[in-house]
Amino acid sequence: MALMPVEEALALLLAAARPVEAENVPLDGAQGRVLAAPVLARRTTPGADVSAMDGYAVRAQDAAASATLTLIGESAAGRPFAGRVEPGTTVRIFTGAVLPQGADAIVIQEDTTREGEAVTVTETAAIGRHIRKAGGDFATGETLLAPGHRLRARDLALIAAADVAEVSVARRPRLGLLSTGDELVRPGEGAGAHQVIVSNLYSLAALAREAGAEVIDLGILPDDMAKTRAGVRDALGAGLDVLVTTGGASVGDHDLIAPALTAEGVALAVHKIALRPGKPLMFGSPAKEAARPLVLGLPGNPVSAHVCALIFLVPLLKALQGVDVPPGLELRPARLAGPVKANEQRMDFQRAEIVGDEDGLPLVRPLPVQDSSMLANLARADVLLVRRPFAPAAQAGEDCEIFPLED
User: So what's the pLDDT on residue 280?
Assistant: First the structure.
């Protein structure tokens, strides 16, 4: 089977993503969720003309420098002045307080002197100065945020200020993680020299949760076809939106995931990607129920699994929540800090560190060890240096492309 180009595989994966349904959640549970419907303001803010400073509300025509005005009252936030500013008068006003009727300017406290009820202006007022106009932030019915937007902390402040108590968001995609391999044990179980700690489970779950998913640990399957098929069968019937398997995706005698998925009715649209690390990657869905779950089979090597999850799983989860995901890889420009060798047919994602900058571009250098089983360099890396298929050798100072390790 010919190797499929990375961007072709990504496009195929995203084309299969059908957004999950929406649900309403209270505002205090909406952080990080993706809007399924626009947020419309339920009030105008500010609701009236208000003062932006502490000072005195005046009629600008009365408040030339050296003019003395008579103090007739006070307007504070939540306690507006009930009367009207008439010629020759002023009202003490505080930040956020409603501008009294008749006033059209604020003289800040520093530009006045006061003796009893007499307020003398030392700086000439100007119409509209230090006033926040009604509706200056937003108006009732205005669209504040659009569907597909992931809610950040500052968005929650905006929504709350608009008097919106709950929002319509995409349901969190349900993702099941199924690990495979006789050699795998969990952290803390006292692994022998012939065993491997199942590290993929934790990195992939973290990436999925950061992308908005609800993650379910489906356990570790042994290298036994009957048990692998049974585990796959149970996972396919578990009401998942996405099933992620790790390990067993290659073609060795103990690589059972692909035949088990096929035997359980999963049609694999992708199997083998022109990618390093991560060539043995699978994607498909049940032939009888094409919508759910989408199945993504990742390599067992932890670096390969992590890189593949960044390239394929994170965009898939975003697309399922209605985020507008670009069709291709989101690469960023950078510059090489040293020479790199020519590349072969697979797109190569090399762990790299940023060692400086040049002309506003980060200077990157690949780390010396790129073995896909070694996690120390993945933790040390700042970015992934991307080498296109058949890219020629390049020297320090030449332009290059990088892929972020964090969203």
Answer: 83
